[in-house]
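Query structure, 189 tokens:
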């Protein structure tokens, strides 16, 4: 399918617009107003009370018991921190593991601590699941991971809740997310 050429390109002029249009893939138009297009992978994000190191260690123990090959990732992620009423972009250090073989090849866990307000960090665990959130094997692995954590991942102590912000919706969201996975009672493995 031929794209209509702008008059400058038809006349043989060479400018930034003509270079971009010649190099653009078919049926794809570049917009000056929207800037860059970024694609994000679909992640299943859980807000947890356990530290990123404990999250990664529990996942590594499960992978070792199943004899899966792992690769580790360290990086950073852009997170929002609210100062009074204005959000500020901030970088958070992430730790991650990816399964390289086995039935859940490509499954990844990334974990980081993010400070939403002025004090107290909320720990996050983001799962990239091959086949999407409906993958029952992956959901079973996440349930096993939650049970192998050193403490209940959806319950915070009074001191932690007070430091983070006692009335934030984080605590209820976390409890509901784990309830959707089928975890309402926590029993240590």
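Result returned for the query:
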């Amino acid at each position: 399918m031929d794209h209509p050429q702008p008059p400058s390109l038809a006349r043989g002029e060479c400018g930034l617009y003509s270079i971009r249009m010649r190099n653009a893939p078919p049926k794809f138009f570049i917009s000056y107003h929207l800037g860059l297009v970024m694609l994000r992978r679909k992640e299943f994000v859980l807000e947890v009370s356990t530290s990123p190191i404990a999250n990664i260690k529990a996942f590594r123990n499960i992978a070792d018991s199943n004899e899966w090959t792992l690769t580790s990732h360290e990086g950073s992620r852009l997170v929002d921190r609210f100062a009074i009423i204005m959000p500020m972009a901030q970088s958070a250090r992430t730790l991650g593991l990816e399964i390289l073989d086995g039935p859940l090849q490509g499954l990844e866990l990334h974990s980081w601590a993010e400070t939403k307000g002025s004090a107290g960090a909320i720990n996050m665990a983001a799962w990239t699941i091959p086949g999407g959130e409906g993958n029952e094997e992956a959901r079973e692995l996440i349930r096993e991971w939650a049970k192998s954590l050193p403490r209940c991942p959806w319950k915070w102590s009074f001191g932690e809740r007070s430091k983070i912000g006692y009335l934030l919706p984080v605590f209820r969201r976390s409890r509901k997310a784990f309830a959707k996975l089928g975890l309402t009672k926590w029993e240590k493995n």
